[in-house]
Design brief:
single chain; 252 residues; alpha/beta; Rossmann fold; Arc Repressor Mutant, subunit A; five-stranded parallel sheet; four-stranded antiparallel sheet
């Protein structure tokens, strides 16, 4: 059985922080805590939670600034803002900065849990949409981390699978080198942007017919890379496994 998602609570008031933690833990969620915006931002980047409950009025870094910074870093974690500020202008401002939902204090336990479930369902639907894909002669199964070209196995590393997933999550839109480093290598690693280019070159060599004239992974000058897909190519509901006896892709 899969563990329930991890939720980061960023709230400076101890009674509220403790109450939220107890409420969520009783539902089986795994809870992370931060008592101010600066430490909350650090935990959001390092721990990669599945959802953030975010207060607005906090010391060191307020919730609006924290939300804006996460979105500037292209961090897609769902954010539910919890605040005593109930004005329409504040709600609009938070949503414009990239928050996913807004709940004014005081709120009921049942409404909070319903909002949490709704946001997590949205993430799960997006993840399910990335189970399989076909790129010309290449078939990719993200669940089993396997790939084939014309029924012959392609040996992709775990990082190459992660880079493909990131590109396919936003087809046609550029993904910056810094975004690749944040998501694929993680906040505590220290690779260079040249590392991204080397991995993209390796990936093109495996999935492109002509890596020097790529059909799928395009370079975006001074930014990074994007995935070009013809209309209707992605997503697919399922991919037929060309062989039940293939060796899984390298997990390095």
């Amino acid at each position: 059985m899969q563990p329930l998602p991890r939720i980061l609570i960023i709230e400076d008031e101890l009674p509220m922080r403790t109450g939220l933690r107890d409420c969520l833990e009783r539902q089986g969620y795994r809870v992370l805590l931060a008592a101010d915006g600066a430490s909350g931002l650090e935990k959001a980047i390092q721990e990669k939670p599945d959802l953030i409950l975010l207060d607005i009025m906090m010391p060191r870094l307020d919730g609006f600034a924290l939300c804006a910074e996460l979105r500037r870093l292209s961090n897609p974690v769902p954010i539910l803002i919890l605040t005593a500020k109930g004005r329409i202008e504040d709600r609009v401002h938070g949503l414009d900065l990239g928050a996913d939902d807004f709940l004014a204090k005081p709120f009921s336990r049942d409404e909070l849990l319903a909002r949490v479930r709704a946001l997590l369902r949205r993430v799960q639907r997006q993840m399910r949409a990335l189970r399989t894909v076909k790129l010309g002669e290449v078939q990719i199964d993200f669940v089993q981390q396997r790939a084939w070209r014309n029924a012959e196995p392609l040996y992709l590393t775990a990082k190459e699978f992660a880079m493909l997933r990131l590109l396919l999550e936003q087809p046609g839109e550029p993904v910056s080198r810094d975004r690749f480093l944040d998501v694929v290598w993680g906040y505590t690693a220290f690779p260079t942007t040249r590392t991204v280019d080397k991995h993209i070159a390796s990936l093109r060599g495996k999935i492109e017919i002509d890596p020097d004239q790529p059909r799928w992974i395009q370079t975006v000058h001074a930014v990074g890379y994007r995935m070009d897909l013809p209309e209707g190519t992605f997503p697919e509901n399922e991919v037929t496994n060309p062989s039940q006896n293939q060796t899984p892709g390298e997990r390095g």
